[in-house]
Design brief:
By secondary structure, the protein is mostly helical. It is 74% helix and 0% strand. The chain has 2 domains: 72 residues, Orthogonal Bundle (Rna Polymerase Sigma Factor, Chain: A); 74 residues, Orthogonal Bundle (Arc Repressor Mutant, subunit A).
Length: 167
């Protein structure tokens, strides 16, 4: 019975990791590969992981694996076409085009940031996590999270303005 319960909990946590990776802009195939590798590593090391930190461990391992894969490929993938435009079909074409253009500018500015800053901005503003939740997830002090989020917002604003002036 414990194995079934552990399996269900692991599946639930891995689904959360998968959704988080997709929100980061990682393609479906890459996110599935990362989650599979993360599950494998969890099964190898589950006896050394504190039960209260399983989710943060899984997310950290998945991100590290993804960044390692990107370094090997020498590029960072942000899938800009999937899931960015969630609009009602009844909207005017002009509104849809303007929304899509704004999303491109946002993702362009976001892609220019360091992966650490991207991660913080997405956790805070897309996932809606508080400073405390981000701090627990990344296992960093709250003051460090606040400082890095401030820097990330400042850099993001700079790149976003550049994207608007260039076009």
């Amino acid at each position: 019975m414990d194995d079934i319960k552990m399996s269900n909990e692991l599946n639930s946590e891995l689904n959360i990791v998968y959704r988080y990776l997709r929100k980061l802009g990682i393609s479906q195939a890459d996110a599935e590969d990362v989650v599979q590798e993360t599950a494998y590593k969890y099964l190898l090391y589950y006896d050394t992981i504190q039960t209260s930190k399983i989710r943060s461990w899984l997310i950290r391992v998945s991100l590290n694996f993804h960044y390692d894969q990107c370094r090997k490929k020498r590029r960072y993938d942000l899938n800009l076409d999937e899931g960015l435009l969630e609009t009602d079909i009844k909207e005017l074409p002009e509104v849809i085009i303007l929304e899509k253009e704004r999303n491109r500018e946002v993702w362009y500015a976001l892609s220019k940031l360091k992966p650490q800053f991207q991660e913080l901005l997405l956790l805070k503003y897309q996932s809606g996590l508080s400073y405390e939740e981000i701090s627990k997830l990344l296992e960093k002090p709250i003051s460090s999270i606040k400082t890095n989020l401030f820097r990330a917002r400042k850099k993001f604003a700079k790149f976003y303005k550049e994207a608007n002036y260039e076009r």
